[in-house]
TrEMBL record:
<dbReference type="GO" id="GO:0001682">
    <property type="term" value="P:tRNA 5'-leader removal"/>
</dbReference>
<dbReference type="GO" id="GO:0004526">
    <property type="term" value="F:ribonuclease P activity"/>
</dbReference>
<dbReference type="InterPro" id="IPR014721">
    <property type="entry name" value="Ribsml_uS5_D2-typ_fold_subgr"/>
</dbReference>
<comment type="subunit">
    <text>Consists of a catalytic RNA component (M1 or rnpB) and a protein subunit.</text>
</comment>
<keyword id="KW-0694">RNA-binding</keyword>
<dbReference type="InterPro" id="IPR020568">
    <property type="entry name" value="Ribosomal_Su5_D2-typ_SF"/>
</dbReference>
<keyword id="KW-0540">Nuclease</keyword>
<dbReference type="InterPro" id="IPR020539">
    <property type="entry name" value="RNase_P_CS"/>
</dbReference>
<protein>
    <recommendedName>
        <fullName>Ribonuclease P protein component</fullName>
        <ecNumber>3.1.26.5</ecNumber>
    </recommendedName>
</protein>
<dbReference type="InterPro" id="IPR000100">
    <property type="entry name" value="RNase_P"/>
</dbReference>
<dbReference type="GO" id="GO:0042781">
    <property type="term" value="F:3'-tRNA processing endoribonuclease activity"/>
</dbReference>
<dbReference type="Pfam" id="PF00825">
    <property type="entry name" value="Ribonuclease_P"/>
</dbReference>
<comment type="similarity">
    <text>Belongs to the RnpA family.</text>
</comment>
<keyword id="KW-0819">tRNA processing</keyword>
<comment type="function">
    <text>RNaseP catalyzes the removal of the 5'-leader sequence from pre-tRNA to produce the mature 5'-terminus. It can also cleave other RNA substrates such as 4.5S RNA. The protein component plays an auxiliary but essential role in vivo by binding to the 5'-leader sequence and broadening the substrate specificity of the ribozyme.</text>
</comment>
<keyword id="KW-0255">Endonuclease</keyword>
<keyword id="KW-0378">Hydrolase</keyword>
Amino acid sequence: MALPKANRLKHRDDFSAVFRKGIRRSSANLTLRALRKSADSDRDKHYPAKESEVPSRIGISVSQKVSKRAVIRNRIKRLLRAAFRHLLPRLKKGWCLVVVVKPEAQRCEYQQFLQELEQLLAEAEVLNGHS
């Protein structure tokens, strides 16, 4: 099951902005890039939204360095999307997030991804209750 449409980061220029201007937090298997989008800067051609409720958007990047096999890369993306769905109600509004997967992540299971994501989001102060 996919993330809700409002929570997907899809366009190349949005990914580029997060990589260029965002903060970076790393763990053993994942790297989180996070960029706070203000209500004014979020008014763009890709994601028009009301000022008060700009949803956080999430992108996942799994390169062929992780695995040459698409089956493995897709499995990792499915697990990360499931972990994000679990954490979505706790995310603060207005963030653009990109998770970059490291090659060591091939051997990870859902619980480990969930734990690492929660830790990275707390470090980046993206989770409600962590500031």
